[in-house]
Amino acid sequence: MWFVHGRAIRRYRKRQSTCPSCEMSGSCLRCGCSFHKMAISSKKCIPVWDKVIFNIGDVKPKEGYSFAFKYTGIIPIVQVESGCACTNVRLVKDLDGNVVTGMYTTPEFPPVLKDMGHTSTMVSQHVEVTFQNGQKEFLTIQGRLHV
Known about the structure:
This protein is mainly beta. The protein contains two helices and nine strands.
């Protein structure tokens, strides 16, 4: 239920307008249709990525950690880029699909948190993937930074 100007408005879904498995609607990166036609007919989603969050675990400041995301979708990837110079990213094409791979250099531990007595904090970085049809998807690299 949504609230607009203090009034409750019911949100109705059209029948078969979303994937029954993940409830994603709109233009789909998995099969390129308007709403998972392949997924609806098979009653399950077709995975695009092996993962969308890469957890690098416990990390130390100013060290490099490698990551990889495997893409098995059918819409070609035309560009990958990171939002920061701390992440080097590239697209590698192989026989089984595309792999977005790279190296993430963790930041320095924030002095403010160190002064407050903290010994760890979460860090993350995003990789933007652009597809041939103009759609974009974000992948996340995350970990826990320790002093």
